[in-house]
Amino acid sequence: DSSMPPSVVASPPPSPPPAIPDLGGDADTMTLTALVVIGGVDQSTGTLSAFIGSVLRGFDGSAGRTPFGPYVGRPMYMLVIHPVSNTGGEQVTFTLTRDGQGTVQLAGSVTFIVGGQVGSALAPAIMTLGASPTAPSPPPPSP
């Protein structure tokens, strides 16, 4: 019968987004806005990771371009950093991991302050190459 409505087929629900690692689930965080510069070149690709000791406490895998201010158009990483303790005071260090180029330790550290903010789009923390980079594995010898 042509007067019958077409059948409705239910679609399966969309898959859930990938799980984000549990970084403590603590509301007592701090934020960081950083411009990473290596060899005089702004780094626009790679993942900026924050560590307290050897434990990952925050990361940003996508530098965004600042739409205004003195750093307009330059790539900024924005991280929420989670503490190990609720009292703060821990030293936070940073690495940048780039596809095919390995991971480098960035110079310096910041002291974790509950509710703290380091850098902004108008005045980012400038991060540079540290003294001890982790070099990528060399390519295999050619035949």
Automatic annotation (TrEMBL):
Highest taxon of the lineage: Eukaryota
Name of the molecule in the record: Uncharacterized protein
Organism: Haptolina ericina
